[in-house]
Write a structure and sequence with these properties.
Pathway: Lipid metabolism; phospholipid metabolism; Phospholipid metabolism. Belongs to the 1-acyl-sn-glycerol-3-phosphate acyltransferase family. This is EF-hand domain-containing protein. The protein has 21 helices and nine strands. With 506 residues, the protein is α/β, with parallel strands linked by helices. Helix 18 crosses helix 19. The longest helix has 36 residues.
Length: 506
């Protein structure tokens, strides 16, 4: 394919950037902020950590006493009563002190409805681990909790004391059982606490509201929406899939003089008969009400998009943080319903000379409209330098490498086709390095070592099959032959945990 520069798109011509709710950038820009943080790290941080640890330990002890003599089965069968219930109020006071000790300046707007008025509280946007503090501000409601978290020696007692609805991740019927338990609690005549649910299911940067999971809406009962805001000049709390680590955020938050948080209780939302029959419609309409109150848009991203980002990040695919946005734009342009990209690498016109293509060539290759704003935005994502040209191979690898059913080796095979300049499956050292660095997350030095070991006859090239035969005999590549892609991605909410094999790309 020709790679002559025949046209381009300027930065000014490009439309407004599409929102990516899973990315957060945080840097201390000014010298004043850096000096202040350094001083508070020495003076303020130790005091706050000490006070927080004291109150957490105190809360743990009260929860331990409150759970004394109760079995796990009894916790699931009936709500706490008598003196145990009164301990909840004590723990709430302790929890509020933890937030205050951390410098949180909390403002409450509106009125929290009673359990009778609204059995379920729906809170959004969910953007940080600090959101968990809302349980102390709402009277210690039950939450949705992974069963593994309840076994944690440090916070397990506090979690169990809320009588959460447990999610058993190893149970294939977990989703059904969780929904069933939510319905039972919400419609029960017993004095169960309200249920607090974050329907987005993952952390975002609060730029929009993503798709609400329907679990909270299956009971068809009145729901009170709860809006969460963090109106701070420097956002040190947002914990997304691509951004600062939890430890860095905690450090920066505790070294701020204070951090503002607003909790707004909106009027109770009473579902219509149609919404009671259709939980997804119910969820969509509640999300619209909350988005209007927050003054932000709604975008149909979901937790599966987070898994897509995690997979792309783990393999070191080009422009991994932007691939969610890329997929949305491709969907708008109708590319997900075609096989344009796949046909390009499987045809005789393999990308031999696509390291620099213009915007006009980009639209011709993909057969998308030249003047469509989405086409322009898609090109701009890869034109970071605003040069008017992109490496089309990086685009192809990104969009073809995130298929749900593809293993790492499948993606590597695609990369070998894309970066093969010979057109005959013969990979030069440069071609091979690009392929394995952007699919197996190897660094360049190690990739060259592997190439030399595979190319024992010193031909100056290897094939994909040559590498697979070599890799099958090496322990460092064994996981690519024994585990599925999803099993190799150890992820958690708000964080991406890359693979841990040696000599990976930093």
């Amino acid at each position: 394919m020709s790679a002559k520069m025949t046209g381009g798109i300027s930065h000014e011509e490009c439309p407004t950037k599409m929102l990516n709710p899973f990315v957060h950038r945080l840097e201390l820009d000014t010298t004043y902020e850096k000096i202040r943080t350094a001083i508070f790290t020495v003076i303020l941080l130790p005091i706050r950590v000490s006070v927080i640890c004291f109150f957490v330990c105190l809360g743990w002890m009260f929860a331990f006493v409150g759970l004394w003599g109760l079995t796990e089965e009894e916790l699931r069968q009936k709500p706490l009563e008598g003196w145990r219930k009164k301990i909840k109020h004590v723990i709430c006071i302790i929890g509020k002190n933890v937030l205050m000790a951390g410098g949180m300046n909390i403002t409450i707007k509106g009125r929290q409805a009673s359990k009778t008025e609204a059995p379920i509280l729906v809170a959004a946007p969910h953007s940080t681990f600090i959101d968990a503090g809302i349980v102390y501000l709402t009277g210690f409601p039950s939450t949705i909790c992974r069963r593994e978290s309840a076994g944690n020696n440090h916070i397990g007692k506090l979690i169990n004391f809320t009588q959460p609805v447990y999610v058993w991740r190893d149970d294939p019927n977990s989703r059904h059982n969780t929904i069933k338990e939510i319905i039972n609690r919400a419609t029960s005549d017993l004095d169960w606490p309200q249920i607090l649910i974050f329907p987005e299911g993952t952390c975002t940067n609060r730029s929009c509201l993503i798709t609400f999971k329907p679990g909270a809406f299956y009971p068809g009962v009145p729901i009170q929406p709860v809006c969460i805001r963090y109106p701070n000049k420097v956002d040190t709390v947002t914990w997304t899939w691509e951004g600062p680590s939890a430890l860095k955020l905690l450090w920066l938050t505790l070294t701020q003089p204070y951090s503002n948080c607003e909790i707004e209780f909106l009027p109770v939302y009473n579902p219509s008969e149609e919404e009671k029959r259709d939980p997804k419609l119910f969820a969509k309409n509640v999300r619209a009400v909350m988005a209007k109150a927050l003054g932000i848009p709604v975008i149909d991203y979901c937790y599966d998009d987070c898994l897509l980002m995690a997979k792309a990040k783990e393999m070191n695919l080009p422009y991994a943080p932007s691939l969610v946005e890329v997929n949305k734009l491709r969907n708008r342009l109708g590319l997900r319903n075609t096989k344009n990209e796949e046909n390009l690498i499987n045809s005789n016109l393999v990308c031999k000379d696509c390291s620099k293509i213009s915007f006009i060539e980009f639209t011709k290759l993909l057969n998308i409209p030249l003047n469509n704003p989405d086409s322009q935005q898609l090109f701009k994502i890869y034109d970071k330098e605003h040069s008017g040209a992109i490496d089309f191979r990086e685009y192809l690898l990104g969009v073809l490498g995130i298929g749900k059913d593809l293993s790492h080796l499948d993606v590597l095979h695609i990369a070998c086709k894309i970066y093969d300049k010979s057109g005959f499956g013969r990979l030069s050292p440069e071609d091979f390095c690009k392929a394995v660095c952007q699919t197996l997350a190897l660094n360049k030095e190690y990739a060259l070592e592997v190439f030399e070991q595979v190319d024992r006859n010193r031909l100056g090239y290897i094939t994909y099959d040559n590498f697979v035969q070599y890799a099958q005999k090496k322990a460092e590549f064994a996981n690519f032959f024994s585990l599925s892609s999803e099993e190799k991605i150890p992820h958690r909410n708000g964080d991406i945990c890359p693979n841990n094999y040696n000599k990976k790309t930093d």
